[in-house]
Q: What sequence folds into this?
DNA sequence: TCACGTCAAGCAGAT
DNA sequence: ATCTGCTTGACGTGA
């Protein structure tokens, strides 16, 4: 099991997603920002490795406006060697990488422009993973998308659009159950018809439950991962103690987490902690796992 | 130096 | 109709 966190490291005073506004666009600023972002990404990866964190989600803002019409600059070529160095470090350290395009990536949209933009965005994410030289265990995850008043038709639209994506996107593509629209059963149905592996979001499953227990859910999603996809990935959070109603917690709830680990000790998977304080909770989770003999099945380091 | 308005984009649900 | 949340605050302007 590898444990990780998304996008931002709060212990380092750098961001791999520096703000970049459209009206301030210039090629110089773009190059400057990407240099900053890649530099920070390197710092984060080194921090992670030194702290036994071998799972990380790279920010979609790494290359600003990558899928926007304003982007004419060949960043892939310009930063090719930088990406290769980072990729070599990732592979040498046996780290696992994922990416998660934002809420604007909706391939089952009824609007042609939205679909085109979504495909461009997926291509950009695949570019990043390919420039890093990562194999198909590095994943790009989205949700199914909108409902548009007819869930079955919207599911069918997702499936048709998926089939037409480039292989280089499909190699990395996975989908995830969400907290409102598409629950576990519905993503499993899509997986059956397309072969897409499923990321089980434990917390979304709690909010938008299709009836399965955690164990049943893990067994079902695990079958959707083939050897070349790597270990199944789960996303984990607990409920915010005050805000409640499907809001992610600010910090790890130790009791909830140890209960979860206890309940799932039969299974092996990689775990992404979607908790607001990022690496701080991740470090604590790793400490809990390594210090507690009940959990000695876990091998943090390969 | 600091307060404050604003930032590419979609969708659903609450107010 | 407008606001909020999503994975998430930081930049630019003007006082």
A:
């Amino acid at each position: 099991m590898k444990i990780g966190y998304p996008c931002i490291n709060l212990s380092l005073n750098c961001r791999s997603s520096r703000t970049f506004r459209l009206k301030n666009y210039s090629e110089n600023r773009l190059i400057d920002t990407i240099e900053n972002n890649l530099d920070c990404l390197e710092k984060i990866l080194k921090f992670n490795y030194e702290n036994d964190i071998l799972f990380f989600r790279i920010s979609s803002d790494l290359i600003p406006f990558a899928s926007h019409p304003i982007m004419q600059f060949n960043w892939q070529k310009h930063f090719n060697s930088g990406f290769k160095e980072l990729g070599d470090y990732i592979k040498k350290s046996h780290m696992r990488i994922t990416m998660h395009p934002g809420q604007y990536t909706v391939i089952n949209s009824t609007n042609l422009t939205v679909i085109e933009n979504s495909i461009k965005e997926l291509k950009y994410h695949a570019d990043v993973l390919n420039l890093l030289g990562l194999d198909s265990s590095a994943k790009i995850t989205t949700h199914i998308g909108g409902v548009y008043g007819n869930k079955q038709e919207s599911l069918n639209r997702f499936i048709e659009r998926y089939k037409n994506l480039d292989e280089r996107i499909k190699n990395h593509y996975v989908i995830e159950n969400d907290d409102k629209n598409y629950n576990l059963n519905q993503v499993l149905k899509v997986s059956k018809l397309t072969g897409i592996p499923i990321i089980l979001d434990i917390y979304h499953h709690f909010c938008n439950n299709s009836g399965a227990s955690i164990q049943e859910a893990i067994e079902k999603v695990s079958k959707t991962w083939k050897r070349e996809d790597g270990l199944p990935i789960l996303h984990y959070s607990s409920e915010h103690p005050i805000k409640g109603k499907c809001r992610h917690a600010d910090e790890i709830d130790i009791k909830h987490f140890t209960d979860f680990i206890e309940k799932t000790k039969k299974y092996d998977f990689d775990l992404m902690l979607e908790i607001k304080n990022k690496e701080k909770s991740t470090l604590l989770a790793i400490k809990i796992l390594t210090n507690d003999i009940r959990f000695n099945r876990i091998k943090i380091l390969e």
